[in-house]
């Protein structure tokens, strides 16, 4: 592996290369029809849930704002379809908790065009206007983190941004939505990059694309040349997981490590996902809000896998029926939102597709069997996890401490806080130890202890 | 809506590689070595391999059944212990002593600590260390390889009755009328008679009636296969052979009359088997890459020093056991450096893009006014 990396050019140290399974890479994006009922949760982003500005029974048109942002890290939401607001009530989300949601019943006869937006000259906007427009469009990071884009593009007052890094790596197996976006919407992508550069004051932008997507590299390069931008570059980087991580991609491109505990902005960089940039390039000139996104529907249990343009709020059960996932009692299966390495298992089928969902993967019972039937052994200290951890941690030692519940020791001496839960260690572990799962628990315990810590010393002192 | 969906935590996929698969591959890579060992020494070696491995498996089964240790027979780790133990013993070692070695290896070397993954010392070497102390004469008695009739009759010592002293191999060898053949290994010959064998002959083990163990060349080839498939870490054998070779070379350069050729040191005795298959035992070696270099370096130096200055001709076993004991300590001081914890921002050479020039100037400015705008992250104590 090391030798191979040497031949292919350097990226970051360690990491893994799982089978890619990018079967949908060559299929164009298709549009999914509208479901009978669209559920728009008010919390599709980190930060406070948005506030509904419509009432039950109100007629809405597609693209109309139906919820306004509540606070800096909140974004507005827009009606994904022309129809009527059926209810505003608690609905389950993919992660489990029930959250207030706006339920819209689309009109069957509507043409479902975006009726709300007013086109404007985006190129004439000032940086502040661009940021405001991004916020108004309800944009969050479409790669999966769902961090509000305007907050990311807003440069802190003490910092200066020189370089915009665009993440086109998509290192997770199965996912191809960013790949197809780069191929099909390269013009919008480049336009979004130009607008974001203006908003942040960056003097150059670099699109990092993994070299397993040569057509995307060509498409983006062509779009850059067509737009006549001299300081925007598309760069192929060797394929490796987890290159989609900010720190790893910056290491691959610039050969520097972002100091621990700091953001790329401390090095004068801001990173965004290609899907987000393409959305900016499309929505800002049209003056529209985000009402749909590209989702990869794939996995061994899907009969018609592909990349679909899905209206936000479409229930996952509808998506699965459309893509041909078997739904009989014998094939108990697992549904994953996002990629197989870091994605979230779905708790219920009636949950909707939200802004942060990049993929819906279906694994059948027999696909999971291979992993389930494997025996779990004690750590044999093979060192595979140490060889694969991109953050340079020692998951073997961390795992043994986690088994003994010595969470403080893990945080204090083994740098648990650096772990960003990419799952490489668990992927390679021959003993089948749920390492990253243990680390999640440990981090949660440490967070809770830290939250309750200030009270404890005060009590002992008094 | 009748689908049963399961909720699990990511990652949702895994590699094919499992503990059983690793162990099976190690056993597989040992088969050519075993085959050549049997070809060299005939039925005695075959019986030794079978009996020692069976003793290991039976002991493992006993402790797993009684719940004393974790693991199963199906994990193949006891097979590895058995084969390695048998290969490290003289080919005509009395079978009952071999069985004792196997029982001790698993019982004291593994079950005592809790089974697979928990053992501190390499079980095979624990077994060998035990019989080295218990049966010092038998373990020093090697028979020459490629004897006529090795496939039709056992060496008399092999079939000794339990708890009885084995038959005298030296008298039996003389009865075969082999001129110039003694039972001493090349290391013992060098140590006690001052005669060093030709390293190339040792490496191939194909020359005449030398009393050597399993072929170093074959072990090297099989080990290289394992290292390429990443079933063992190449750093450990490289460090051991490198440091043993360098130490031997330093001493040879200092006094060629007293110390042998470094290649003789590297290819004789059990060094190759120890370096490739025993020191690389995953459970008993450090997991950190830098720790592996330290651990291997320690074993290599110790091996040569024990061979030159110790009372025994062979030193690999004790060197590895000491290395095993030191490995937790080594690991503690060689933890990997986490990403972004260096506090230095020096771009890797050959990076595609440079940091922005204005940023670099800020970093340099930050060096004169430290910890203001660019707080350097110190590793927590």
UniProtKB/TrEMBL annotation, chain A:
Of the GO CC terms on this record, one is: plasma membrane
Question: Keywords for this entry?
Answer: 4Fe-4S, Cell inner membrane, Cell membrane, Electron transport, Iron, Iron-sulfur, Membrane, Metal-binding, Repeat, Translocase, Transport
Q: Which Gene3D superfamilies match?
A: 3.30.70.20, NADH-ubiquinone oxidoreductase 51kDa subunit (3.40.50.11540)
Q: The organism sits in which domain of life?
A: Bacteria
Subcellular location, in the record's words? Answer: Cell inner membrane
Residues holding [4Fe-4S] cluster 1: 379, 382, 385, 429
Cofactors (names): [4Fe-4S] cluster
| Chain positions recorded as [4Fe-4S] cluster 2 binding sites | 389, 419, 422, 425
**Residue runs in coiled coils:** none
Answer yes or no on keyword Thylakoid: no
Q: What is its EC number?
A: 7.-.-.-
Keyword match Electron transport: yes
Tell me where it mainly resides.
membrane
Where does the 4Fe-4S ferredoxin-type domain lie? 367-399, 410-439
Q: Which purpose does this protein serve, as stated in its record?
A: Part of a membrane-bound complex that couples electron transfer with translocation of ions across the membrane.
User: Subunit arrangement?
Assistant: The complex is composed of six subunits: RnfA, RnfB, RnfC, RnfD, RnfE and RnfG.
Name of this chain's protein: Ion-translocating oxidoreductase complex subunit C
Q: Which organism is it from?
A: Rubrivivax gelatinosus (strain NBRC 100245 / IL144)
TrEMBL record, chain B:
What single Pfam family name could you report for this chain, choosing any that match? NQR2_RnfD_RnfE
The UniProt entry, under InterPro entries, shows: NqrB/RnfD (IPR004338), RnfD_bac (IPR011303)
Q: Which UniProt keywords apply?
A: Cell inner membrane, Cell membrane, Electron transport, Flavoprotein, FMN, Membrane, Phosphoprotein, Translocase, Transmembrane, Transmembrane helix, Transport
Q: What is the E.C. number?
A: 7.-.-.-
Is Plastid among this UniProt entry's keywords? no
Subunit note:
The complex is composed of six subunits: RnfA, RnfB, RnfC, RnfD, RnfE and RnfG.
Write down what this protein is called.
Ion-translocating oxidoreductase complex subunit D
| Organism expressing this protein natively | Rubrivivax gelatinosus (strain NBRC 100245 / IL144)
